[in-house]
Amino acid sequence: MPTPSGGRPAVRSMRGMVASAHPLATVAGVRLLIAGGNAFDAAVATAAALGVAEPYMSGLAGMGVACCYVADERRVRALDFVPPVPRRLQTDSRREAEPASAAQTAGTPGNLAGWWALLERYGSKSPAEVLQPAIELARDGYPISPFAVEFYEICIERHAAQEEWLDVFAPDRVAPSAGSVLRQPDLAATLEQFVADGPDALYNGPLGAALARHVQAQGGWIGEDDLREVRPRWTEPLATPFKGTHVHTPPPTSEGIQMLLTLRILEDDLAAGDEPAYLDALVRAIRVAATARIRHTNAPRDELIGLLSDEAIARMRAEAAAAFSSRTSDRGEVHPPQHTTALATGDAEGNLVCLTQSLGGKFGSGLVVPDTGIVLNNLLEWGDRDPSSLNHLSGGRPLSLPLAPTIVTRGGEPRLALGTPGSYTICQAQAQVLVGMLAGGLDVQSAIESPRLHAHDGGLVKIESRARPAVVEALRARGHRVEPAESFDQGMGGMQGVARSASGWLEGGADPRREGYALGV
Predict the structure, then answer these.
(1) Are residue 168 and residue 110 in the same domain, yes or no?
(2) Residue-level pLDDT at 389
(3) Amino acid 327: pLDDT
(4) Most buried of 98, 101, 106, 500 (most Cβ within 10 A)?
(5) Contact assessment for residue 494 and residue 1, using Cβ atoms and an 8 Å cutoff
(6) Same domain as 320, residue 309
């Protein structure tokens, strides 16, 4: 018999699978699969429910990207729903100082448009059916978990001046305790309005007008014209071969090129089975790949494909031999890694969906549109105030975000949907889990649970304290400045994955670093 590992078992099923960062959101997606929906229906139901069940991580007024295997078309596609910077934000308006108000951090909402684009192109159920679980969750409420209380305790002070936020999330003007029931009737009514009127209620209607007025009244940039111009973009993913598979992730505005480069740089160092040697090579590959990603932010597709060429990878492997220190984030590690969410879904037909969506920071900007329950993001904080930056904030420019939902194929067949939150941790964490599965033969749950490391700006490397002491000492002996992290560190991501076997059964894994759960049908 297999020896129990002490961790969660991988979940296996035949008809469908959902993995997400909150059990109630996973159940929302499973409901659609049981009702005969496909992986796209389940993904949107899960995404909408996540915005209700973990409102500190994501919501309909956030932004995101998705990567999908479409069984009927036998191809991988990416969907980008990260809108451009609002047009009213002018080049010089953020050159010298931090934004004057929370409203000035709010970017144009993209998630709702992304959900609708997935449903319209590939869904099999109506918006009413898909959004019903989220509507019920918002209207009827759910008990706040001990995990979530921390976010409320931090934000009760941060958003103390924002009456609308307090009215929704802390009506007693104190942080709710574990077991308190959060009900969001305004959000339930808003979701019902989208069922009746479609996304135009937000992007070309009175709800959007109210949002723009509220933001601009507090000094922000979003206008009705920005909302009208939101157009999710279907794109061709970037892909690279790795260990007999192809790993696919969206092009910019996604920054997943770093993950692909890390895998390519590493591949020749994986044969020996020497863990310290692998981790040493991993850290060096991460540093070189992060440097390349920063230098090529928002680069044209041809330029990024050139980075993945054998010649370019050979140069990077040579650079990795001396890579003890680097920048791993665009402006120094100023962005908390915990406040985004990911999900993965699969169905019996072979469709796989991986979606990553974000509000930016905890509860985003904290700005709530009155009487709607809509929480606005603060994702403009991920842009750069330096006019020379490739991710410079200026009206109408693209906004590059470190999101990297991933699809893996083998021989053209779908094998894995994998994604995580984590800001600039995302590409590092996903590379490690992919190595565990594709080179190490781990199942999706075991790979997700394995100890992770994070290469920080400068020369610091943090590694979860479950790592073997001998391995940590071996890394130090190789010249790395290593410090321990928590045993299951939230900062190392919140990975969710759905794998598909060659014979068609599905396997789900969810990250215990968050509240993740995988369920199959």
Answers:
(1) yes
(2) 81
(3) 56
(4) 106
(5) no
(6) yes
221 plus 325 within the same structural domain: no
pLDDT value of position 421? 95
Is the domain of 425 the same as that of 328? yes
The pLDDT score that the predictor gives to residue 391 is 84
* E strand or H helix at 469: helix 469-477
Q: CA-based angle 101:62:497, to the nearest 5?
A: 140
Counting as low any pLDDT under 70, the low residues of the chain are 1-6, 91-100, 272, 324-338
Helix axis angle for 257-266 and 275-295, nearest 10°, is: 140
Predicted local confidence at residue 214, as pLDDT: 97
**Residue of 519, 409, 422 lying closest to 462 (CA atoms):** 422
How much is the pTM? 0.95
Phi, psi of 56 (to 5 degrees): -80, -10
**How far is the C-alpha of 315 from the C-alpha of 480, rounded, in Å?**
22
Q: What is the number of structural domains in the chain?
A: 2
Query: What pLDDT is attached to residue 333?
Result: 46
Cα separation, 255 vs 288, whole angstroms: 14
Does residue 66 form part of some domain?
no
Read off the tokens for 353.
């969906």
Rounded Cα–Cα distance for residues 504 and 415 (Å)? 9
Q: Give the number of other Cβ atoms within 10 Å of residue 318's Cβ.
A: 11
If asked whether residues 325 and 188 sit together in one domain, one would say no
Q: Tell me, what's the pLDDT at 1?
A: 35
- Domain containing 91 equals 22-56+81-233+362-382
